[in-house]
Design a protein that fits this description.
The chain is α/β, with parallel strands linked by helices. The protein is about 40% helix and about 20% strand. Strand 3, helix 2 and strand 4 form a beta-alpha-beta unit. InterPro entries: ABC_Transporter_SBP, ABC_transptr_periplasmic_BD. This is Periplasmic hemin-binding protein.
């Protein structure tokens, strides 16, 4: 910390003595950002970015701003080498104010899911600009998230180009979705403990992704992520069950098979259990439309077959 301060002090003195204005490609003119929490945040230096949230980090890498990132959270797993090259400040919902600020960031760009709340309040009241990224799990929301982050780091042109690419991906997805004549009922299972499943209900990222893929969320009658009761499990009768891949240990699909209330569902009878990478599936970053297309292909393989036949 002392060495950093000394270097800055010496550099500033030399520049002032020579009458040269302090400038750098990573130093912006002071800009006021209305962030996702409704706060007006002043940002002037993006030379040392602390990125919190897998989607935030993925967007920064896609904008080629990764050289400015000095630290990330543990959910920032794409690109694959991010956690190997950047300082890891821990899980985004269990941050430590001391751990975050010890990386000496010039700005913190964070997902709205970051926590715990008391720590976030400390970070917001610190001298480091803390920018909350808007969270809107729609095609428009994803594109605008890209534009927002690009504005924060002064890369609006690159952000607009990336957002346009993503919008085109979503347009192609919508064309495919329009071909679905009989939507399936899909249920997202977040976890299983002691034979009880926690599912993704209305308003969750899983709910949004299921709809993007042209299916109906079988758990939409439940708000948020909630444990599934034995009675409701039977009533939901999903055609397909969606879950996240996990590294190591038993496969999620095997654990789902231990849930009694889902045993008689069409999904279980037909072996329709779909596993996808968690960040890819629920990150709502630049790859969101691609992830939705892959989910759609798993739910409706006949659409892929028809497309292949038409191309022959």
């Amino acid at each position: 910390m002392f060495r950093s301060y000394l270097i800055r002090a010496c550099a500033s003195s030399l520049l002032l003595a020579s009458g040269v204005a302090l400038s750098a490609t990573s130093t912006l003119a002071d800009q006021s950002i209305l962030d996702g929490s409704g706060r007006d945040v002043k940002v002037s230096d993006t030379s040392r970015i602390l990125s919190v949230g897998g989607d935030v980090t993925e967007i920064l890498y896609a904008l080629r701003a990764d050289d400015k990132i000095i630290a990330i959270d543990s959910t920032s797993q794409f690109p694959g080498d991010a956690l190997q090259k950047k300082t890891d400040v821990g899980y985004l919902r269990a941050l430590s104010a001391e751990g975050v600020l010890s990386t000496n960031p010039s700005v913190i760009i964070a997902s709205s899911d970051a926590g715990p709340p008391p720590v976030i309040e400390v970070l917001k009241s610190s001298s480091v600009p803390y920018v909350v990224v808007p969270d809107d799990k729609t095609p428009e929301g994803v594109a605008n998230k890209i534009r927002f982050i690009a504005k924060v780091v002064g890369l609006e042109a690159a952000g607009e180009a990336l957002a346009k690419d993503v919008e085109r991906d979503f347009a192609l997805l919508a064309e495919q979705r329009a071909k679905i004549t009989k939507p399936k009922r899909a249920l997202f299972v977040l976890s299983v403990q002691s034979g009880k499943a926690t599912i993704g209900g209305a308003g969750t990222g899983a709910d949004a992704m299921i709809q993007l893929a042209g299916a109906v969320n079988a758990g939409a009658s439940v708000p948020g992520y909630k444990p599934l009761t034995d009675e409701s499990g039977v009533e939901l009768a999903p055609d397909a069950i969606l879950t996240m891949q996990h590294g190591g240990g038993g496969m999620p699909g095997d654990r789902i098979k231990t849930v009694p209330s889902l045993a008689g569902s069409p999904a279980m009878k037909n072996g329709e259990i779909i596993e996808m990478n968690g960040l890819y599936l629920l990150g709502f970053g630049p790859r969101c439309a691609r992830a939705a297309r892959e989910l759609m292909a798993a739910l409706y393989p006949e659409l892929v077959q028809k497309k292949a036949s038409a191309a022959e």
